[in-house]
Amino acid sequence: MIDAGTVDLAAQKLKCRYSEPQRHYHTLEHISWMLRALKPDTLDQACETIELAVWFHDCVYDPVKGSPWNEDESICVWEDFADSTQSQVMADLKPCVSALIKATILHRLPDVLPEGLNALEVATFLDLDMGILSESAEAYEKYAHQIRQEYSHYPTTAYCAGRIKVLQSFFSRERIYLGYDADAMEKRARCNVEGEIGRLRSQETL
């Protein structure tokens, strides 16, 4: 059994991290959205693993240092917490949650998965993390603005070029979403991403 005080302290630290001033999109709102969108009935016991990954995957977020530093540091925070619980359950979950967080670096299914984690669980988690791409045009526009705020240290031309490169890396994939029932999400996401690329290109020429 995990000590309640250890869990409460970790929860408070996570809330503080997700409330840091450099964050505009990668906040508690993003975490809450992912948790609400998670469907426990389709994943059985895997939900505990995914929920932990949701909470810890962006707990370290420095837009200046970027990826993969953020993900690697987030994994360290997660593993330190898992060790601090002195729980065999957490020890068993540790490599699975770490693998989920690491998968957000490239947002692709890893070639090798730890025991206890399958491809559907990874796909579910990654699709949750990218869920904002398939939201309404208004919600997507808000998200795009929040990302720009997080990267305000870049001048317009440099930001547009970098952001277009990131968006095109997703748009050029055969599938943005990896789940088996994401056709509607896929269509909306591609429409939103294409629209943002167009807006960014127009800003580059100003």
TrEMBL record:
Species per Swiss-Prot/TrEMBL record: Mycena belliarum
InterPro entries noted in UniProt: HD_phosphohydro
Highest taxon above the source species: Eukaryota
Protein name as annotated: HD domain-containing protein
